[in-house]
Specification:
By secondary structure, this protein is of the alpha/beta class. Among the domains are: 178 residues, Rossmann fold; 165 residues, NADPH-cytochrome p450 Reductase, Chain A, domain 3 (Up-down Bundle); 158 residues, Rossmann fold (3-Layer(aba) Sandwich), CATH 3.40.50.80. It has 37 helices and 35 strands. It is globular. The N terminus is likely disordered. It is an enzyme of class 1 (oxidoreductase). This is NADPH--hemoprotein reductase. Its cofactor is heme; FAD; FMN.
Length: 1193
């Protein structure tokens, strides 16, 4: 198979003539060049059923595929376009199809593409009547993204699948019949007729060139607003598309042709002629070409108008090319080809001008109109967009601000809005590619001479690539989401070589208009003039009737002295809009009758009932968030209940009785290797059982919102359980209060949760009317501590309690000359505790004694101060702080996290404890506030410098924070998990850990040490620790002969050391074991090759084949993925041919990521599949537990 998708023409066909059974495939006839570009349906295509051939066994399905799949023996190509996790192209061998494989059948068997059956004499003409585009939408919905039609004896194909589109867009030439208007314009031309003007236009349509037009766009934008006001005052409604087209045509005449106000006659003649030709051109494309050549009145007028357009352009181009002209016509006339030095001829300039005018003004007008319409439909999107405009343009509500080019580039959310608008309403609804002769792609697929019709509209709404495709969601184009997109699933400006050069020009013009419009007006749909959809959805018959309400004051308002910035945040819980002229918050969101009824029901429930705060948590993060929410609920006098998901199940669901009252709930949960936390398993099993039993109303009493907590470094199972809860509860009758809100510990998790809480409390206070008079500042104020600490006299010494695991040995594994440390820890397993090789030990670590003393000093209390904790609310005193006296030293050493980066809630609590005139208050507000500036400052000065609470307080020598304020908001110490590096098969009463100790110097010069790793390194023989065994997915294969490949670096070796001890036992038991290849990485053989003696011994005894990568022992760094590439054939054989297992353990950020990429590359190379298909195959192997990842961030 060729490595690139290059095209080989008729000679390649002749070489294979004896082997090929010719069929017609992927033919889009020249007929389609006579069909206009129009809108398609809003309705998303549904999955078409896979047809079963009568000669195929029940387990083998054929979804027909029109491309040749050439093999030496007969194969059938299978395509399932609507199952994302499936490989795109699979092959079922002919011997598996008994009715096909016999001596009477041809060597080549290709199943026909799906489409409606032919009718005698007229083929599919009845299926295309009365409107081709309506029929096309219906047929793609019925038959899928590839539809075969026949019309006038010729086959036609409709295509909306990115996999094939990506291949077709790589062709430079469109190969279309010559057109009547601007046939040599850059949009239609091919070959040198295209490449030559393309090079010239590329030198014109640069960002720098577009920036020079921005001042002109400012003036034209004001004219656009004036036209809106004029039409709205006259008609009380604005037909937005038509008005935008008029304004854009005026604008493009000025920018493109240089026709200013002094050329009114010429501009009028040009506009009148151009608009008539545009409309008639579309109508001519709907007719048979023969009718367009007959001597009828409209044909005669058409050619006369063409001559008239040519005359007008001659007159326009005859004007002097003075130096002060920077319109596009002047730029094109002056430009030279950078390769040949040639200039465009007058004819070529005319064709390029017409092309720019046709494509430019329609594209800009439609994009602008639909963007304004879609934004008006979603208050949440409108609020975010206006907030960004205020922030970037620094609006004061007094002066109209004009954006410069750099500010326009900074409007990132507006970019997302415009991209989503182009996805839902692409101005270019279709694209056509043609082939002049029979063509083979990759020596596999053959095309007859044809035109291939690509439906951009249906591609942009293909549910395989766009979940919920009819929903307007700008966040689809966030960078992390775009990274997952197929290259050809979004093609509003074409693709590959033929990508539209003017897209930056169009986007810049629209962004200027939106910036000016939203400063002066609010756009709303008109209730008296509804939008009525017709066959052409891009141009509804009613247009887009809109109301434009002039603002009493400009967007933004002058801040009062000392007033904080407006919070910049997403509103994940409810779609709300803040009134800027008042302190209170309100929403003007329209609701349906059912939504209003549900809201009123929730309001009554919350007045009489309670707010359920449910969490699922192993390490404690979600529990901390839950109790933070409960503290704020208590402050706002909202009745609440805090419990684990399993506790909720036991109280309300376990009995199976129907819950009578409605429950409003916030679910905060994490996931662990794709599984629920330990205290959420019962709740998860209940959901699964309800699904299995088809109990569609089991959760009808739930009104819920989910906040998921995870780390995106675990990209395969990231937030798997929160997503499962989000998707499953509605199937059981529950009502979502908001879309799923992800929290990523690898980013700013706390800020995301704060944003959720702010909208949550707005919802309760304002939407449900529980606190109607409350001001916004009180709503967003973080929850304080509910604890009060009283210093008491106490003489009894605190007993040093230890855990059940007793340490028997601690030794250093790295060489003396190494600057780093890895310790081997052996401990006795308590009676009744069981573990397996590969499991984790979750330990409860203590802060370093020196750090505890520093913290006590910063607080102004001796470490042996005795305290008693009392709750100031109905929240209980937490378990880590018993009712009786407890020493401050113990609280800070064992219970609270004082070593990690100080959180924003802690900074906020410290800030609130200071008086307004305190010299440090302003500084701290700069980190803990909710403005974008505060978020940026926190990231820059606190996070990047690794500042913990001890260092922060030490830098504020005059600040003494009350214990009541601080101890109740500090996060609790989280448990840490370590892979067990032994097997009970060797010695069941012993367990070992291999721990890399964390030491480094922060940017401020502070010596930082990890809590758990250094705590374990400080242990002595006889020491005791609190710990428990956690089951891991890292399991040795059940069959002893299964071949194994393990990849790791550093202490990632731990579980595989346990595997090797397991193998030793299995070999003694069975006499032989399967192959075991270990790819191990470390820095240097002399310094950190841990367990070297053991590994070499295992290899000498035939239990292991070792592949070691020493990254620092040579000039060029060598890592484990490089060693994998050296043995790629071995890895491919184990995984693809021998049903082997592949394990990875180590750093998720670098090593594990690079190993996964290398493994997918190997799979693609040796399976003959694409990189995208290899990703899918990789996920399948993880789901089948043939690939197992145990990585950390």
């Amino acid at each position: 198979m060729a490595s690139s998708r290059q095209f080989h023409h008729s000679q390649a066909i002749r070489k294979k003539n004896q082997d090929i059974f010719e069929i017609q495939h992927l033919v889009f006839d020249a007929l389609l060049t006579n069909i206009p570009v129009k809108a398609h349906s809003r309705s998303s295509p549904n999955p078409s059923p896979i047809r079963q051939d009568p000669g195929i066994t029940p387990n083998s399905f054929v979804y027909s595929f029109p491309l040749y799949f050439l093999r030496s023996t007969m194969d059938v190509a299978i395509l399932d376009p609507y199952i994302p996790a499936e490989t795109y192209l699979r092959v079922i061998r002919s011997e598996d199809i008994p009715n096909v494989c016999n001596s009477n059948k041809p060597e080549w068997y290709i199943e026909e593409t799906s489409g409606p059956p032919y009718t005698l004499f007229v083929d599919n003409l009845p299926d295309l009547m009365p409107d081709f585009w309506v029929a096309a939408r219906r047929l793609q919905k019925q038959y899928g993204p590839l539809v075969r039609l026949k019309f006038l004896g010729k086959k036609v194909y409709l295509l909306s699948d990115p996999e094939l589109i990506a291949i077709l867009l790589k062709e430079r030439d469109k190969c279309l019949p010559k057109q009547e208007l601007a046939s040599e314009g850059i949009f239609l031309a091919d070959g040198d007729t295209w490449t030559f003007p393309r090079r010239i236009l590329q030198s014109i349509f640069t960002g720098k060139a577009v920036a020079t037009f921005v001042p002109m766009f400012h003036r034209l934008g004001l004219e656009f607003i004036e036209e809106i006001e004029k039409e709205y005052n006259e008609n009380h409604v604005v037909k937005l598309i038509r008005l935008s087209e008029r304004c854009m045509l005026e604008a493009i005449c000025e920018v493109c042709l240089g026709l200013l106000k002094g050329h009114q006659r010429l501009k009028h003649d040009f506009n009148e002629t151009f608009e008539w030709l545009s409309d008639e051109g579309i109508k001519r494309q709907t007719r048979l070409s023969l009718l367009n050549k007959l001597p009828m009145a409209r044909n005669i007028k058409f050619f006369k108008m063409l001559e008239n357009m040519d005359r007008i352009l001659d007159e326009i181009m005859s004007r002097p090319l003075t130096d002060d002209r920077n319109d596009l016509l002047a730029l094109m006339a002056r430009a030279t080809d950078p390769e040949t030095g040639r200039k465009l001829t007058d004819r070529e300039v005319k064709d390029q001008i017409i092309t720019i005018l046709v494509a430019g003004h329609k594209t800009s007008a439609l994009l602008q109109s639909w963007a304004i319409f879609e934004v008006s439909q979603d208050p949440h999107v409108e609020k975010r967009l206006k907030q960004e405009i205020k922030d970037v343009l620094k609006l004061d509500g007094v002066t109209l601000k004009y954006p410069d080019f750099n500010q326009l580039k900074d409007l990132k959310y507006m970019d997302l809005v415009l991209k989503e608008t182009l996805r839902m309403h692409p101005p270019a609804q279709s694209a056509v590619r043609g082939l002049h002769e029979k063509t083979v792609i990759n020596d596999e697929w053959m095309f007859d001479p044809c035109n291939i019709f690509i439906s951009v509209y249906d591609t942009h709404r293909n549910p395989k690539y766009w979940p919920d495709p009819d929903k307007f969601d700008p966040d689809r184009f966030l960078p992390e989401n775009v990274a997952k997109h197929h290259p050809a699933q979004y093609i509003p400006f074409g693709g590959h070589h033929r990508t539209c050069l003017g897209n930056v020009f169009a986007l810049t013009e629209v962004k200027v208009n939106l910036c000016l419009l939203y400063q002066t007006h609010d756009a709303r749909t008109s209730s008296s003039h509804p939008v009525i959809e017709g066959n052409d959805l891009l141009f509804p018959p009613t247009d887009l009737p809109m109301k434009f309400i002039k603002r009493k004051t400009l967007l933004g308002r002058k801040k009062k002295e000392g007033e904080p910035e407006t919070p910049v945040m997403s509103s994940p819980f409810m779609k709300v809009e803040r009134e800027e002229a008042e302190e209170r918050v309100y929403t003007n969101r329209r609701r349906t009758a059912s939504q209003t009824k549900r809201l009123m029901s929730m309001k009554e429930e919350m007045k009489m009932g309670i707010f359920h705060i449910l969490y699922g948590s192993n390490t404690g993060t979600c529990k901390d968030f839950a109790y933070s929410t409960a503290r704020k609920a208590s402050e706002l006098n909202v009745q609440y209940s805090v419990s684990t998901l399993d506790e909720y199940y036991e109280k309300y669901l376990e009995s199976g009785k129907e819950v009578q009252e409605n429950h409003t709930m916030l679910i905060i949960t994490s996931t662990w290797n794709g599984h629920p936390p330990d205290n959420a398993k019962k709740f998860r099993n209940w959901m699964v059982e309800c699904q299995r039993s088809h109990k569609t109303d089991a959760a009808k009493h739930m009104n819920f919102c989910v906040f998921g907590v995870g780390n995106s470094q675990w990209n395969i199972t990231f937030l798997a359980f929160p997503k499962f809860v989000e998707d499953t509860l509605p199937l059981l009758g529950a009502t979502k209060l908001s879309s799923y809100e992800p929290g990523d510990e690898d980013e700013d998790l706390q800020t995301k949760f704060e944003a959720l809480q702010d909208i949550l409390w707005y919802f309760f206070a304002i939407e449900l009317g529980l606190s109607p008079g409350i001001d916004h500042k009180t709503l967003v104020k973080p929850a304080g501590s509910h604890l009060e600490f009283v210093v008491v006299e106490h003489e009894k010494e605190e007993e040093e309690r230890g855990g059940e695991f007793v340490v028997t040995q601690v030794k250093e594994l790295q060489a003396d000359e190494s600057s780093r440390s890895t310790v081997h820890i052996e401990m006795k397993v308590p009676e009744g505790i069981r573990y397996e090789a590969g499991d984790h030990l979750e330990i409860t670590a203590w802060n370093h004694p020196d750090l505890v003393e520093e913290m006590c000093t910063a607080l102004g209390y001796p470490s042996d101060t005795w305290l008693t904790a009392v709750s100031k609310s109905n929240l209980p005193v937490p378990s880590w702080c018993p009712q009786g006296p407890i020493q401050l030293r113990r609280i800070l050493a064992r219970e609270l996290d004082i070593n990690g980066i100080v959180t924003r809630p802690v900074i906020q609590a410290i800030t609130q404890s200071l008086t307004d005139d305190h010299p440090y208050k302003t500084k701290l507000e700069g980190y803990g506030g909710k403005t974008q500036e505060a978020l940026d400052a926190y990231e820059r000065d606190i996070v990047k410098n690794g500042i913990n609470v001890v260092e922060l307080l030490s830098g504020l020598p005059d600040v003494r924070v009350p214990l009541n304020v601080l101890l109740g908001v500090l996060p609790t110490l989280k448990k840490r998990s370590y892979s067990i590096s032994s097997s009970p098969k060797r010695e069941s009463g012993k367990l070992t850990l291999s721990v890399g100790q964390v030491f480094f110097k922060t940017a401020t010069g502070r010596e930082h040490s990890g809590v758990a790793s250094v705590y374990l390194g400080r242990l002595k023989e006889g020491g005791r620790i609190d710990a428990h065994v956690v089951t891991s997915p890292m399991r040795y294969p059940t069959h002893h002969m299964t071949p194994i490949i393990c990849v790791c670096n550093g202490t990632g070796l731990a579980p595989f050391r346990g595997f090797l001890q397991e193998r030793e036992h299995l070999k003694q038991l069975h006499g032989e074991v399967g192959p075991f290849h270990l790819f191990f990485g470390c820095r240097s053989k002399k310094e950190d090759f841990i367990y070297e003696g053991e590994l070499v011994d295992y290899e000498e005894r035939g239990l292991l084949t070792l592949h070691v990568a020493f990254s620092r022992d040579q000039d060029e760094k060598i890592y484990v993925q490089h060693k994998m590439r050296e043995r790629e054939e071995l890895i491919a054989d184990v995984l693809l041919n021998r049903d082997g297992r592949f394990y990875v353990c180590g750093d998720a950020r670098t090593m594990a990521r690079d190993v996964q990429e290398e493994l997918r590359r190997i799979m693609a190379k040796f399976s003959g599949i694409t990189a995208e298909e290899a990703k899918t195959k990789f996920v399948h192997m993880i789901q089948e537990e043939r690939v197992v990842l145990d990585v950390w961030g």
